[in-house]
Write a structure and sequence with these properties.
Strand order of the largest sheet: 1-2-4-3-5-6-7-8
Largest sheet: 8 strands, mixed
Distance between the termini: 32 Å
Structural class: alpha/beta
């Protein structure tokens, strides 16, 4: 059971994929577009935001390709940040939204930046939560995984060694269990851990493998973030083991945005501290989309 059900459920067809979206209507109010993130979870990760934000705004969510109500696509090109931005533009068109305040978690922050670069007139402002944009080096414990990602994993693999292409194919559920443990370091995170693992079970290691081969944008990420012309709010936890807090600091600096540091929060503060995140989003939307 949901706290708030969508008023409209529909889909677009773009670039060979069906992309499902939901609209929570609030006539005459600004539009908030909640972006997808890494395909390992779908748009239900916004479940603590939608009921609150929909009281005050028109809210739109959509699933990227590979999970949720969208097609399971194995073409790596379909998972580029520019493709996500193009999906977002098509969803805005389909829902009659002239523009929106765009909110992105983790990789969704990168997709939001690409959207603002491609169609600045459609973006009133961006909220980046734990942005996974390579503006600073990865956390030390994660640095080695990029060197061994495509190599065979050892029999005694542990920790971030599970972030491995072959391991995803052979032990996908175990990887998800490990990964969401890292996302949720806060005490009493059993329910969000169960939720995220359940959403992850709706896709597969093969889909994540395809997404991992997606091409990078032609534009340097630092230049892209610095060139965003709209207001920006960055929300980042100090215990984020996926994307270091320093990245949020740098994203705010480059974009001349504001930074809300969530002391003690991990990678999913919208789940573990939803009241604070929701109030910060509302204050931001009221400032930039009045």
């Amino acid at each position: 059971m949901r706290a708030r059900y969508p008023d409209i459920e529909a889909a677009i067809e773009r670039a060979g994929a069906r992309i499902g979206y939901e609209i929570y209507e609030n006539e005459g109010r600004p539009t908030v577009l909640l972006m997808p993130t890494w395909t390992i979870i779908h748009s239900r990760f916004w479940k603590m935001q939608v009921p609150y934000l929909a009281r005050h705004y028109r809210v739109i969510t959509f699933d990227g390709p590979g999970n949720g109500r969208s097609d399971r696509v194995t073409d790596p090109n379909r998972y580029s940040a520019d493709e996500y931005a193009a999906d977002a533009i098509e969803v805005l068109d389909a829902t009659g939204a002239r523009s929106a305040v765009v909110v992105g978690l983790s990789l969704g922050a990168a997709y939001s930046v690409r959207l603002a670069r491609r169609a600045p007139e459609r973006v009133d402002g961006i909220v980046m939560i734990g942005p996974s944009i390579p503006l600073t080096p990865p956390a030390p414990e994660r640095e080695a995984i990029f060197q061994t990602f495509e190599e065979p994993y050892p029999d005694d693999v542990s920790g971030w060694g599970k972030y491995n292409l072959a391991y995803w194919q052979d032990h996908y559920a175990d990887f998800c269990d490990f990964f969401f443990d890292q996302c949720l370091p806060e005490p009493h995170s059993t329910k969000p851990h169960q939720d995220t693992c359940a959403w992850a079970a709706e896709t597969s290691g093969a889909i994540l493998a395809a997404e991992s081969a997606a091409p990078e944008p032609d534009e340097d990420w630092r230049e892209a973030v610095a060139a965003v012309g709209c207001p920006v709010l960055v929300i980042h936890g100090t215990r984020d083991a996926i994307s270091p807090h320093a990245r949020g600091v740098e994203a705010a600096r480059l974009s001349s945005g504001s930074l809300l540091t969530m002391v003690g929060s991990g990678h999913l503060p919208q789940t573990r501290d939803p009241v604070r995140v929701n109030l910060a989003i509302r204050e931001f939307v009221d400032e930039v989309a009045a």
